[in-house]
Amino acid sequence: MKQPNWARNLRVGSAVLSLALVAAACSSGSTSAGSLATSSTTNSGVGSGNQAAATYVRNLEQRPTSLDVKSIPKPIPSGLNIDFIACGLPVCTEFYKVVQSAATVLGWNVKLLNGGLTPESFTTAYNQAIQDKPSGVIGSGAFYPQLLTSQFQKLKNEGVPVMLYDAPNVPPGVTGVFVNAQNQAEYGKQLAEYVLSQVGAHGSTNVALAYSPANITSYQPMHAAFTSTLKAACPNCTISNFQFADTAIGTTLPSQTTAYVLSHPTVKYLVFDYSNEIDGLPSALQAAGMKPGQVKLLATDMTPGEAPYMAQGWYTAAAGIPWPEAMWSMMNVFAWFHDGLSTATPLQQILPNWIITPASLPSTTNYFPLVANYQSAFKKAWGK
């Protein structure tokens, strides 16, 4: 498959961009978190490996069908202005579109600010938000929150709530975070359990955790949970590191990873932090004489750029990221805030979990949420 132009040209700056190379075995007694549908039917994604892990994965392979959004007890004010600070990745533009859809329902306005991919560009964007004096600010992408404490505090002092998407914790001055360290740890656990569900109960393997130099900490909880889950179930598995430069994403990473796989033929799974890191890899593997499934690709999230890889059998499973649900949840926090209500209730919104496999892939051309009718749940809660 031809690599998308944006992927070839992507420069991800100094974000944490990591992947794990995995094949694993043995047992697991873990339980899942969140609102999950259960089923006793066998899904094609689950193999004959560890049965506890297989049951865990089988439950999470069922697409969630509902989202419990608490009704707001007062009419929501209209005409609010929200600043949306987008990171410099293509998916952040999609975040903006989803926020716009929520704003349309609420009768609000959304202004797009380009946060780029550097500390300087994010600082500039937040300084612009301070000048705008909006009704709320959403920061997308876990970029440099530790460097923006001054901006966060100024916005708080002005009575402007700030919500962040994908940050380990809630920085001082920020109202809340959706997709945090706890969520990332859950995704790491899900991917480890998926691997355990596929392999024999008494096996062992070498595991390579690959990453670029860490300037943000978003994926560290994922790495830690993946490692601990794997090691607890498979003590004979060994873990090593494989580092790459962040500028390799979308450029040389496919060839670098292919070279690593060819020189480490026992590796059967490649587990990436997020799906954009897969771009171009199936083509490189195929050019090296490999076939789909010979090495299985796993990651978090799914975009139209990687969905065809799953349909073709390269991308085996994804820990779904509920970012559409998270974006509407942030707008929900603003609604409660400007109604003079405590934000504790909307900040406790439970996000769905879903392990996406070829058997359940909804689309190879469009972005999709985890809960198909999630917007209806919010509209009902908002009285819209």
SSE order and pairing:
Layout (H helix, E strand, L loop, with lengths): L4 H5 L8 E5 L28 H10 L20 E7 L2 H17 L2 E8 L2 H14 L3 E4 L9 H9 L4 E4 L10 E3 L2 H18 L7 E6 L8 H14 L4 E6 L9 H11 L5 E4 L8 H7 L8 E5 L6 H6 L2 E5 L3 H16 L5 H4 L7 E2 L17 H9 L2
Description:
A seven-stranded mixed beta sheet has the order 8-7-1-9-10-11-12. A five-stranded parallel beta sheet has the order 3-2-4-5-6, with helices on both faces. Residues 1-48 have low confidence and may be disordered. It has helices spanning 5-9, 51-60, 90-106, 119-132, 149-157, 181-198, 220-233, 253-263, 281-287, 307-312, 323-338, 344-347, 374-382; strands spanning 18-22, 81-87, 109-116, 136-139, 162-165, 176-178, 206-211, 238-243, 269-272, 296-300, 315-319, 355-356. The radius of gyration is 21 Å and the shape is globular. Helix 7 links the parallel strand 7 and strand 8 (238-243). It is an alpha/beta fold. It is built from 13 helices and twelve strands.
Gyration radius from CA atoms, angstroms: 21 Å
Number of helical elements: 13
Beta-strand percentage range:
15-25%
Helix content: 25-40%
**How would you classify the helix and strand content by structural class?**
alpha/beta
Indicate the overall shape: globular
The average pLDDT value, as a whole number, equals 82
Unreliably modeled segments: 1-48
Strand order of the largest sheet: 8-7-1-9-10-11-12
What's the N-to-C terminus distance?
43 Å
Could you describe the largest sheet, including whether it forms a barrel?
7 strands, mixed
Give, in order, the helices and strands. HEHEHEHEHEEHEHEHEHEHEHHEH
Question: What is the count of β-strands?
Answer: 12
